[in-house]
Specification:
The structure holds two protein chains of two kinds. By secondary structure, chain A is of the alpha/beta class. Chain A is built from 13 helices and 14 strands. Chain A starts with 14 loop residues before the first strand and ends with a helix. Chain B has a two-stranded antiparallel ribbon. The chains are: A alpha/beta, B mainly alpha.
């Protein structure tokens, strides 16, 4: 979900001072764009008499670079790709969280992810939101049955009518699933086959774009299929464009998740923990799920009671058990494999 | 002039120059030196290794899609520069020679109106104009000229169009300034010697306005070569230019050494372009 962080607010990353300008305290959070929605942040600011300064970032690499260039204590809260939490723990960036104060028992079981969030029995982060990178489509212009087979993304039936979301991890994961390779088992030896399918997909696609371009392309009818789409593209548009739909193909889908933690160097760990608890609360989760930047499923099941029927329907709440069972996490390559994947992706873009 | 007065004058002059010099040193020379050093280091895993080597430059040459990115950048910048100058010259000439002096400021202001809008917004606006259901395709379809929409968006054509829209204005300003400096006596002298209108333009006006053309052309080329926004929004990622590849190194890999090396290569390209047209870029002639 790298570029989703830049999100609908396609302006450059910026330090956003939200309301409560006269607040006595401030909290600095490194986040994705969904956290910049005032409807999400302002209730916390009012309750704690604090100003939350939010900085959006693009990609874990950028976030780590920002942290590297900051002074110790500059940052308090970190929102990060679920698959990248171990990197942050390895780098000593995250502080231990009191597991007994977090609503872990209310999370969808697949989102607990102890292998990512805990180390030697210590919890360092917790899932807050998740969704899928699958296939979004315009059901008026394509045969929905075609969309249930992953091979449609590199076939030529919809040539020139396909857009691809510009993020290498989920798309490589989708191609791997289409080839029968589990996302967690992708190795360097799989890359040539994945590369070939990516190139076939590029030959049949019209564009590769970040969030705004992708969403605009399918919303305006520029393309009929969005590879890498999902509820984060269509859920917020359900009212205006009911013909937009998405599906988890038979081969499965790629699941993304974002996690939240407290920086180890934070000098306001208690307040930062309060923010984490607020985001994980049922009310905070409902607001985060329907953030103006992008919608996606809340990790906390208790959020359901704070969402309307229409909102739950747009998020496919009732289908989650099936989707979760058939989806796999983003590939989490080591540094060498990650570099190879990015080289393949650059070749794919250049093709 | 005594030695002391000369010294005071020198000190005074130095005092005037010092702020600009310090600014240049702090905000250009030092960062540039750091970027050169960074380009000679390397990233190994998550670590920055401060060994001096040309590994990033060799890595650039070893990746055909990187080299292709540079070639794409040069090709697009060259096309944009040529198109911008070709469109800007008649516009600048019309404003300078045909618009009454009192209206020239208004005409110029109108010509640069596109500068007043956000660069990003302007690029996104072009996606709406060039899309399958955009203004151009709708018009061509309603006129019965095409039955299927033309693929205009997410192409090199779209990128070039977005660039030219911007750089025509820039070149118009530099060429207009040059035309206004040109004494009408040159044309009169040419006419006295029997030259026709076209001959006067080709043999007198055009050579004398080359500095304005070259300044506008060079600025267009250099700015276009380093631009990331327009190809990213309008090109549909169907071909990458070098700034996009640099952004990929920064945003996704945090590979600052490779990004620095690519930036140096981009700067060298601009430098070569400068040297190629340096004889026309002397400020006193522009």
């Amino acid at each position: 979900m790298e570029l989703r962080k830049a999100g609908i607010f396609f302006a450059a990353v910026s330090m956003t001072a939200t309301a409560a300008a006269e607040a006595t305290e401030s909290l600095n959070a490194l986040v994705w764009c969904d956290h910049t929605d005032p409807a999400l942040i302002e209730p916390f600011e009012r309750e704690h008499d604090v100003r939350v300064n939010l900085k959006e970032y693009e990609g874990t690499g950028t976030a780590l670079a920002i942290v590297d260039q900051s002074r110790p204590g500059d940052w308090d809260v970190f929102v990060i790709d679920g698959v990248d939490v171990p990197r942050a723990v390895d780098a000593g960036l995250l502080a231990p969280l009191p597991a007994d104060e977090l609503p872990t028992e209310n999370l969808f079981p697949e989102l607990v992810m102890p292998e990512n969030h805990t180390r030697d029995g210590v919890t360092y982060a917790i899932s807050e939101k998740f969704g899928y990178n699958t296939i979004s489509y315009n059901r008026d212009n394509v045969d929905p049955a075609d969309m249930t087979d992953m091979s449609v993304i590199w076939g030529d039936k919809y040539s020139g009518r396909i857009a691809v979301y510009d993020y290498y991890l989920p798309i490589i994961g989708m191609v791997a699933l289409g080839l029968g390779i589990n996302t967690a088992e992708i190795s360097a030896s799989d890359l040539p086959a994945i590369r070939d399918k990516l190139f076939e997909m590029k030959d049949n696609s019209k564009q590769v774009g970040e969030v705004v371009s992708s969403q605009t392309a399918i919303a305006t009818g520029e393309v009929d299929v969005l590879v890498g789409g999902g509820e984060w593209v269509t859920a917020g548009l359900t009212t205006e464009l009911p013909e937009l739909d998405w599906v988890v193909p038979e081969q499965g889908g790629v699941r993304w998740s974002q996690s939240i933690g407290v920086f180890a160097e934070s000098e306001k760990k208690e307040l930062a923990l309060e923010f984490v608890k607020y985001i994980l609360s049922p009310e905070g989760q409902a607001r985060l799920a329907t953030s103006s930047c992008y919608w996606a499923m809340p990790a906390n099941m208790a959020a359901a009671e704070h969402l309307s029927d229409a909102q739950r329907a747009a998020l496919r709440w009732n289908s989650q058990p099936d989707y979760l069972a058939r989806s796999q996490l983003y590939p989490a390559p080591d540094i060498e494999l990650d570099a190879m994947m990015q080289d393949v992706w650059t070749e794919f873009l250049q093709r | 002039m005594s030695g002391g007065a000369w010294t005071r004058e020198r000190i005074l002059a130095l005092g005037f120059v010092l702020p600009a010099l310090a600014w240049t040193l702090v905000f250009f020379v030092a960062p540039f030196g750091f970027m050169v050093a960074m380009s000679l280091w390397r990233r190994a895993g998550a670590e920055l290794v401060r060994d001096w080597s040309l590994v990033n430059y060799l890595g650039f040459l070893a990746r055909p899609h990187f080299v292709e990115g540079l070639l794409n950048s040069i090709e697009i910048a060259a096309i944009v520069t040529a198109a911008s100058v070709a469109l800007a010259y008649p516009l600048a000439w019309f404003i300078a020679a045909r618009v009454p002096a009192g209206w020239q400021r208004i005409a110029l202001a109108l010509a640069i109106v596109p500068f007043w809008t956000s660069y990003v917004v302007r690029s996104y606006a072009w996606t709406l104009v060039l899309s399958n259901k955009g203004v151009v395709n709708e018009w061509l379809t309603s006129a019965g000229l095409i039955s299927e929409p033309l693929q205009l968006s997410s192409t090199r054509f779209a990128t070039v169009t977005g660039f030219v829209h911007f750089f025509v204005m820039l070149s118009t300003l530099t060429i207009f300034a040059n035309l206004k400096q040109l004494s009408p006596n040159y044309a009169r002298a040419a006419a006295d010697l029997g030259a026709g209108g076209f001959q006067t333009f080709r043999l007198v006006v055009l050579p004398l306005t080359l500095p304005g053309i070259m300044v506008g052309g060079f600025l267009s080329f250099a700015l276009c070569l380093g631009d990331y926004i327009t190809p990213q929004i309008l090109g549909g990622n169907n071909e990458l230019v070098l700034p996009q590849i640099i952004m990929l190194q920064l945003g996704r890999r945090a590979d600052f050494p490779m990004a620095s090396a690519l930036s140096i290569i981009l700067m060298l390209t601009v430098t070569l372009a400068y040297l190629a047209c340096a004889r026309w870029l002397k400020l006193e002639r522009a």
